[in-house]
Amino acid sequence: FIRDQGHITEGLAYEKPILYETTGAPVALRSLELSESVWVEIQQVEIPQIEIQSSHWGESVCVLDDKLIMLTQYGPGFILSKSDLGIERSFDYPQGKEAWGVIFDPVRKKIITSDGTATLRFWNPEYMSFESAHIVTYNGQPFDRLDELEYVNGKIYANINGKKEDEIMAEIDAVTLCVTGLIDISSLGKLVSPSRDGSKGIPQGIAWNPESDSLYLTGRNWDKIFEIKLL
Q: Alpha-carbon Rg of the chain, whole angstroms?
């Protein structure tokens, strides 16, 4: 699918028929709807500078009932109305911690965030209060650089924040928090047009479409959103 290339995508979330996208700079949340083969922007809301420090970076987003949970890298996070993208309130992170990816786990009934390490943090979704931290492992060792997240039927999918050659997506068991697979998505970047400065951004953004049982994937300043099925 075609999309506007001029956005540093950090997170995606989907609830039919809307695709929500967060961007790093400016710190913004966009809602998109598919028209033929093009994702068209319906609305964009920038987080007011008074709410965040100038050095802050927009991160991920997830849907929680009639709300959206949106992160900035160093905090605060925001709870927004899904109907009009209006900010309802903010919440703080544990001292000195960051938040990158965010999902809602419907089995645990917890919000889960990543921070670029092997740690996933669990939050009470009603109060957005931090509760506990857990380590993701691969072959018994901590598996770090966890970034954007998506929950799909007992699995957590994660973009891995790293070098251009590390274009993989991790599959994590949502119960054991063990990595059960590494998915090579490097072929997608080869189908993307270079941005204005001639560069290509890393893969960033995962959203699940439960109706088609497929994933939407994109990247920073990519001109396409891909729909894939996992075998």
A: 16
Contacts of 44 (CB under 8 A, 6+ apart): 28, 29, 30, 31
Q: How many CB atoms lie within 10 A of CB 35?
A: 10
- 197-to-81, 151, 167, 192, 203 alpha-carbon distances in Å: 36, 34, 21, 14, 17
Residue that the structure tokens 């479409």 belong to? 209
For 231, how many CA atoms within 13 A lie in the half-sphere containing its CB?
A: 2
Query: What does pTM read for this prediction?
Result: 0.94
| SS3 category, 120 | strand
Q: Distance (Å, rounded) from C-alpha 221 to C-alpha 140?
A: 35
Give 15-40 pLDDT, tens digit per residue: 999 999 999 988 999 999 999 899 99
**Neighbour tally for 99: CB within 10 Å:** 26
Q: What is the mean pLDDT of the chain?
A: 92
